[in-house]
Task: structure prediction
Amino acid sequence: MLPPFRPALLAFDLDGTLIPDQDKNLNVETSALLAELRTLDLKLAVITGRDGLSDRVREEACLHAEAANNGGTIRIGDEIIHTEKLAPEDLDLLLNHGLDGGEIVISGEGGYAVPENSAAPREWMEKHGVTYLGSWLELCPTGDALRP
Result:
């Protein structure tokens, strides 16, 4: 039974909530529960730190909205309505950071790139369906493509 008030939107985290941590797709039970919620005319959304959802998950979940990249990309239906981009000075700060043991992984819809001799968790990324594109140097010997 629904409460006397009606929520406008139900938003869910993705990893570890709708999708098990070591997987990249919705399981049958989750798909069925989301379908049941949709029969109640509730709008559904996902909020994730991922770059975005796969087309398969987006179709299975029948989402009204999606906030990816920790809110850096917002999609309503099939339309991206907001995208945050790094300002040149912020990108310089990131690329020239001096954190001991820190590492920057640049990722996007096509895959991810890392510095030379990276310790990035390649096996974990591939397990989660993220394609390794190469090192920054292999992809862009001059470094120009890393700048807006």
Notes: The two ends are 51 Å apart (CA to CA). The chain has a mean pLDDT of 78.
